[in-house]
Write a structure and sequence with these properties.
two-stranded antiparallel ribbon; hydrolase; HAD-like_sf; S-2-haloacid_dehalogenase; Rossmann fold; alpha/beta
């Protein structure tokens, strides 16, 4: 019996083209760094290097944030304290300006509300490579921020990233459920359907489907959030 529903964010609850978003995200960040007199020319490359290291890492004793910072501050010329303050200000002041690149996925708010109404434990299981401030901001864009989630996975509170099995198993431990008691809802075949390999039920959202050629396991369900709403209503 399903006890918990896990929602991916980007491309699932939030209608967003991540390629366009990332281009504008780095453009805005570089502009702000240049304005503040911080090293900016290779900033996106260095962030991606640290992010890729964070995604690969499987050390259960370091949070994703700790892994990211251990790599980034080794290759960044600026003072770590200055860069930490810069990132905090960026997500507070500049990041919200990217909201024009996204919109709520049709039925997003309603399906999350239905999951709560039906008594499920509900978590936001987005890849934990961003700070909470950035993820909560995107939840606002999806009009899904004002819910009492059991867990929102961020780089501060997680030790693994998608598509590692450990990411999903850690969510189970946090929620106090077994994998077979979870339904993972997402649009990325490579990152979200892998939850099925640890025993979770999966729902593939098709509108913003990613990595469709990477299927290793068939989803239990697939369709849009309106279909998911009906399925949750029947449980």
């Amino acid at each position: 019996m399903i006890k918990a529903v896990l929602f991916d964010l980007d491309g699932t609850l939030l209608d967003i083209d991540m390629d366009i978003f990332i281009q504008n995200y780095f453009k805005l960040m570089v502009e702000m760094a240049r304005h503040r007199g911080l090293p900016y020319q290779d900033l996106p490359k260095k962030i991606m290097t640290a992010t890729e290291a964070m995604i690969r890492d499987k050390d259960p004793n370091r949070t994703n944030k700790e892994v990211f910072e251990s790599v980034f501050y080794k290759i960044c010329e600026a003072d770590p304290n200055l860069m930490a303050a810069f990132f905090n200000d960026f997500y507070k002041e500049a990041f919200p300006r990217l909201s024009s690149l996204a919109a709520p996925m049709q039925g997003a708010q309603e399906v999350v509300a239905k999951a709560f109404e039906q008594g499920f434990k509900v978590a936001i299981a987005t890849n934990a490579i961003f700070p909470y401030s950035a993820i909560n901001e995107r939840l606002k864009w999806a009009q899904c921020h004002d819910f009492p989630y059991e867990l929102v996975t961020t780089y501060e509170n997680m030790y693994f990233c998608k598509p590692h099995h450990e990411y999903y198993l850690d969510i189970c431990r946090f929620l106090g459920v077994q994998p077979h008691e979870c339904l993972m809802v997402g649009n990325d075949v490579a990152e979200d359907l892998v939850a099925g390999e640890v025993g979770m039920e999966t729902f593939l959202c098709r509108k913003r489907i990613l990595n469709e050629g990477a299927r290793r396991i068939k989803p239990r369900y697939e369709g849009d959030l309106l279909l998911l709403y009906r399925l949750l209503s029947e449980t």
